[in-house]
Amino acid sequence: MGRLFLMHLEGNAYSCKFCRTHLGLAADIISKNFHSKHGKAYLFNRVVNVTSGINEDRMMMTGLHTVSDIFCVGCGSIVGWKYVRSCDGYFAISCALPVRPSSKLYGAPALGGCT
Ligand SMILES: [Zn+2]
C-alpha cells in the first residue's frame, strides 16, 4: 500500500465520526431513512476516503445482499458498508457526522457580494 491521499470535500459533507475524515457529500445522499444494526445510516451513491473489505452475503432488513464493509482510510474504523451487487454500488455510512460549511475547516466565507 502506498501513501494514502485524503480527499477534502467542499460544501455540506459528512465525515468520519472518529477522525473527521470527509466521507461523502450531502448532495450524494440517496436516503436518510436507513438503519444499520448500530443505528441510523445514510445511503450515498458516492463516497471518498474509504477502502472496502471482502464481499459477503448478508441478510439485511431489505433482504439478502452482497455487501462489503467499508473502512475510513483516516483511522481504519468501519464506517459502513457497500452494496456490491447493485449496479451503481451504493454505500451506506453509519458512522457519519455532518460537516458544516461554516465550521473552522472552511475558513473562507462565501464568495460574492458587491463591495
Ligand atoms: Zn476515520
TrEMBL record:
Domain Yippee: 12-115
GO molecular function: metal ion binding
Keyword annotations from UniProtKB, A to Z: Metal-binding, Zinc
InterPro entries linked to this entry: Yippee, Yippee/Mis18/Cereblon, Yippee_fam
Domain of life where this protein originates: Eukaryota
Bilayer-spanning residue ranges: none
Family (UniProt): Belongs to the yippee family.
UniProt protein name: Protein yippee-like
Lineage: Eukaryota, Viridiplantae, Streptophyta, Embryophyta, Tracheophyta
